[in-house]
Amino acid sequence: MKKRFVSLLLIAALSLAGTSLFAADIELLNVSYDPTRELYEQFNQAFLKHYKAETGDNVKIKQSHGGSGKQALAVIEGLEADVVTLALAYDIENIAEKSKSIPQDWQKRLPDNSTPYTSTVVFLVRKGNPKKITKWEDLLKPGVSVIAAHPKTSGVARWSYLAGWGAILKQQLGDLKKLNDPKYANEVTAAQKKAREYTAELYRHVKVLDSGARGSTQTFVQRRIGDVLLNWENEAYLAVREYGADQFEIVVPPISILAEPPVAVIDKVVDKRGTRKAAEAYLKYLYSKEGQEIAAKNYYRPRDPEVLKKYSNNFAKVELFSIDDVFGGWQKAQKIHFSDGGVFDQINAR
Amino acid sequence: MKKRSIIPGFGLTFGVTVTYLSLIVLLPLSLLVWNTASLTFTDFLKAVTSTQVLASYRLTFGASFFAALINAVFGFIAAWTLVRYRFPGRRILDALIDMPFAMPTAVSGIALTTIYASTGWVGSWFDRFGIQSAYSPLGVLIALTFIGLPFVVRTLQPTLEELDKEVEEAAESLGASRFQTFWRVILPSVWPALITGFTLAFARALGEYGSVVFISGNIPFETEITSLMIVAKLEQYDYAGATAISVVMLSVSFVLMLIINLSQYYARRVGR
Questions:
Q1: Which domains does chain B have, with CATH numbers?
Q2: Is B234 within 8 Å of A70 when comparing Cβ atoms?
Q3: Cα–Cα–Cα angle for A135, A139, A142, nearest 5°?
Q4: Which residues of A173-196 are buried (b: 16+ CB within 10 A; e: fewer)?
Q5: How many of the other CB atoms lie within 10 Å of CB of A64?
Q6: Which residues are A66's β-sheet partners?
Q7: Count of CB atoms within 10 A of residue A114's CB?
Q8: Which residues of B touch A (CB under 8 A)?
Q9: What percent of chain A has pLDDT over 90?
Q10: ipTM score for this prediction
Q11: Domains along the sequence of chain A with CATH
């Protein structure tokens, strides 16, 4: 009897020691969007080394990639993501609102709107730029066919749509600050009308609306359809690197949108699984020098000014406007432009 | 003594069947209806009858129907060849029929698009005649034909194997022409299987998403299939709207299946 008690005590002591003395094995699930495969493959390697050195714990990171909206839906429906790294704030806002697994002010919890890296929308054209496309207005030249993703099913497609719209506003108004100044109300209304006409015409030039970012790259690069592809800057660079600079060229328009793909820890999941510490460290590490360098190497614009300077060859100078300044945030933009019966549906209506 | 079947009796198997069906089929279906119930009737109507959605029904049902029809004709020929003739490579050909079953739909979609795009092997040939195959309704038809083929062939094969060659010979010796033998002897006996195969191919095509989104081009009012409309609604977190369209798709499919099955029953009675 006594012997048994001692052995029980021993087991209890050992298991207690286990948590403090021996390295813990932690598993994280990062639910991300389509084109970040390469980025997180490299970043995860770097993070596990860093975390092991820092805490002695072993982290294993599982990745899930797919269309941003679809991924958000999966999380809302109960996919146990420790962290989400999605294409647009709208999707994480919906996770906050629909599943209540993160607080409403999630975007204030990490620096820079919780976006450790940014990106923008650029043009990919055939070598030599035969159609002489340099700015947004050129996309409407006769005979130019455009490849883009479907704004209803793809994050980057929405960014592209808004980028073109904003570029025309800028061309019409000269200064985007006029948008929020009641003094210029009439001028703004006229500019909005022009932007709408532009967008309607633009989508008449679109021959294929793929369901996602990668799909539209494939259509343009492998099937050689279209004269210009609208896509993420990082996706365009990847296409050039994979398929050869002798076939494609990147054209950075003079103005485009500041795309902020945000990240968040899913509180409900990390508290349930006891992974909060690792999950928070994971996202914080994205802001570290090494994390920023990995982002820059994968053609995501780093927030760190020094790293940005070091990789300035990767990123062309371009004037960027934010969705908050020009469209009043994602909720509003989504409602006006992309919801059923919104502007995108109106310009396509028959 | 009561005769006992080798496998445990009706009570148990029936119970298992009902439970299994409930879990796998009925539960998700009732959830669908439940979700739609959150809509008012006018909202429901608005969701399922917007012009864009109507255009997608036309494309989906039309392309699925013609794809199944094409498969009924060519699937019949393929099944006949595989059953009746012995030739080298027959088994390989037979195994190939199942490929559309086994391939992930996205893979078939990407492969078909590459072949049928205006720069692809077959697409460039179509292009010479001014026909756009990928990124057009024709592309949708091609993808749906591809995925439906095994259904027709696999349902026809057993029936064709059972068909006695002597019956044909008897018909011939009684003075029937080749066409008459085919029309009055062969076709009536394979008719039910052919209709079943057609129905399966048709049903499979109605719900297809993975392969079609790659080849269709997804242009509003032209090449958007209904499954894409459902996905688009889900991306806006509009569950009710998405399920409303699904309910319409399901109801129409169910009615069509019912009609086809009844006609099969009728054909069988007339055949006798």
A1: 39-271 (1.10.3720.10)
A2: yes
A3: 130
A4: beebebbeeeebeeebeebbebbb
A5: 15
A6: A33
A7: 21
A8: 47, 50-52, 55, 110, 113-114, 117-120, 134-135, 213-214, 217-221, 228, 231-238, 241
A9: 79
A10: 0.74
A11: 2-117+260-311 (3.40.190.10), 121-258+318-348 (3.40.190.10)
